[in-house]
Amino acid sequence: MLEGIARWAFAVLLAALPAPVRAQTTEPPKTLTLYIGAPAGSTYDLYGRVMARHLGHHLPGNPTVIVSNMLGAGSLACANFIYNVAPRDGSALAMVVQNIAEEQVLGSEGIRYDAAKFGWVGRLASNLEVAYLWHTVPVDGVDDLKRRETIFAASGSSTIIYPLLLNNILGTRIKLVRGYSGTPTAHLAMERGEVEGTLGSLSGLRALVPEWFATGKVKMLLQFRQGRHPDLANVPTIMEVMPTEEDKQLFGFFISSATVGRSLLAPPGLTPARTAALRAAFDATVRDPQFQADAAQAHIELEPLPGMAIQDTVERQVGVAGSIRERILAVRWRQ
Questions:
Q1: What is the Cα–Cα distance from 308 to 310, expressed in whole angstroms?
Q2: Residue 267 backbone phi and psi in degrees, to 5
Q3: Fewer CB near the terminus (10 Å): N or C of the chain?
Q4: What's the number of CA atoms in the CB half-sphere (13 Å) around residue 127?
Q5: Cβ contact 67:48 at 8 Å
Q6: CATH superfamily, region 129-255
Q7: H or E element, residue 239
Q8: How many Cα neighbours within 13 Å face the side chain of 307?
Q9: Cross-strand partners of 265
Q10: How far apart are CA 76 and CA 97, in angstroms?
Q11: What is the pTM (predicted TM-score) of this model?
C-alpha cells in the first residue's frame, strides 16, 4: 500500500511541475532522450533500446539518442512528465504502457495528460496479451477458473482490470497479488511458486523467456484479441467467452490498446515540422535493414504502424461514449 501511495504521489508531483518555456528553434537537437515508463529488462525497455540504437541516424543532425527509464505509477509518471515538463523541441520522446488512454477514460488518479494531444510518432509492434499459468497448476480453462481460486501476479493496468472483469462477468475466482514492478518480476514469482499465473504479451514471453513458450513451461488460457492468433489456434479469445454483445463491446474497448502496443510519443505542442520529422525518421528506421536485424537478434517481433494511425486509435479511445463509457467508468469501482 505504501509503495502504491508513493508512486501516485510521484506522478502527481511531476504533473504539478510547471512546463518550461522554450523557444521553438529551427536547429535540430544534438541529443534526444527516449524516456521509457517501464523497468529495465521489460519488453517496453527492449523495444525502446533497439529503436534508440538506430533512430538518430534518420533524424536531422544525427542526434545521439539516450535511453532513460522513468518509473512510477505504471507509466503515468513518465506520461505526465512528457506532457507537462519535457522540452517541446524534438529532444524528448517516450515509450509508455499501451493503455494510457484507457487510464484517462477510467479517471485514474494522478493523470495530468490528454492522451489524444500527445504527438504519436509510430508503433513498433502491436501487443497480444494473454493469460497464462505455470504448467503444474491444475487449471486448463475458464471453467476451472470459476471452480478454483487461482493466484495471479498483477504488475500493471491490464493485469488488474482484465481479471477483475473476468471475475465480475464470468464469475471466475482470480485472486490478485499486486505490487510487481513488471513482467520479469511476475515471472520470477511464478517460478518461485508465489503466484500461479499472470497476464502478459505473447511477444514478451518469446523475448524474455523463449524457453517457457517452446517447452510448455506455461499454459495459455485466454488471448485478448478479436480473433485467434495463428500461433495460438487452440487458445480461446476473450470474445469467445463473453456472454453478451455488450460484454464484447466492453472488452473491445480495452483490447483496442493492443493496437497502440509498443509506440513512441512526443510531447504535445511540437511544431508540425518537428512532428513530421520525427514520424519520417521513425518510418525510415523501421525499414532500415540494420534495425530489422538488430530486432531479430533481440527476439522482438515487429509490426510497424505510422504515427497518424496510432493517433486515430487513441482519439477514438478517448472519445468513447454512451452506455459502453458508463460501463467502463464502473470498472474502477470494482478495483
A1: 5
A2: -60, 155
A3: N
A4: 25
A5: yes
A6: Periplasmic binding protein-like II (3.40.190.10)
A7: helix 238-241
A8: 21
A9: 94, 120
A10: 9
A11: 0.77
